[in-house]
Design brief:
Shape: globular
Distance between the termini: 14 Å
Structural class: alpha/beta
Largest sheet: 8 strands, parallel, barrel
Bound molecules: ligand PBG
Length: 337
Amino acid sequence: MPRRSPPLETEPAGGGSVRPRRLRRLASLRDLVAETGLTPRQLVAPLFVGERPSEAPEGLPALGRRDVAGTVREVERLRDRGVRAVLLFGVPRHKDPLGRGAWDPNGPVPRAIRAIKGQLPETTVLADVCLCEYTDHGHCGVVSGGSVDNDATLPLLGRAARTYAEAGADLVAPSAMMDHQVAAVRRALDAGGHPGIGILAYGAKFASSFYGPFREAAQSSPAFGDRRGYQMDGRNPTEALRELRLDAEEGADLLMVKPALPYLDVIAAARVQFDRPIAAYQVSGEYAMIKAAAARGWVDEASAVRESLGAIRRAGATVILSYFASELGPELPGGVG
Ligand code: PBG
């Protein structure tokens, strides 16, 4: 969190020495004066739900796909470790140009939401709202004339959000980066009788090289072109604040920055600028980098996870979406960071 610099420290008035190390002598003393921390209650675990389970890419266990029953078992396992929120992504059997599967009430995501809410109703269930997992071309909206048609996509996102709310989702998370998607989703939820269902807006979602493993897992790589026509340009921190402000004005309940570690400056600026909880998404490529380095013995996995999640908290995120939420060891409930 950005703060004013303290006045220059001089020697204590009564003489003696300034020694910051006095507060670092014992673990209990370091914990006592720690300014930030993290508990599993502040984490959201992203989960992939499909018709059939599939193997995770090698070395990346959190990117495997489960069927509905397997998803419920995973939510229960997470609950036992203190993680009580999940974000669901669907991998449908059929894809088409409009992404119709996104609002199929019998698709994997609505079925998983109903099953989770039936068996573990205290779980906070978030549903990602986007078309890229459901379109045959892999773009996040309707394609016409070679580009993604913003306004034709909005009602479809609204329809998908309403389907997830009807199934029992607690929050919907529009991630397509269409202009006015938050307003469209808010209107659809209100019109559908779901004024109490909140929106986690992917406000500042950057076009990033760190989404690669996710696209493998969700089979959502664009068949042509890339997403730079709708996702944000990483060079623009001021524009990121504008995107977040627009989403706040359109009714977002939480504002998200994504990816996390490469955009800590944006998280820190958002923290001081907005009066809503800030979320950050430690994306698949960030997860994969730590897993790969740890597999080679180049970094110690537990401490690298603690340090990077700690950095995201320190920057100002209240909520962190992370694949490591599924891999917490028994040491985490004491807090990381
Ligand atoms: C798109 C979406 C993406 C991610 C979350 N939602 C991928 C993309 O924009 O291509 C990426 C998350 C990750 O990499 O972990 N709906």
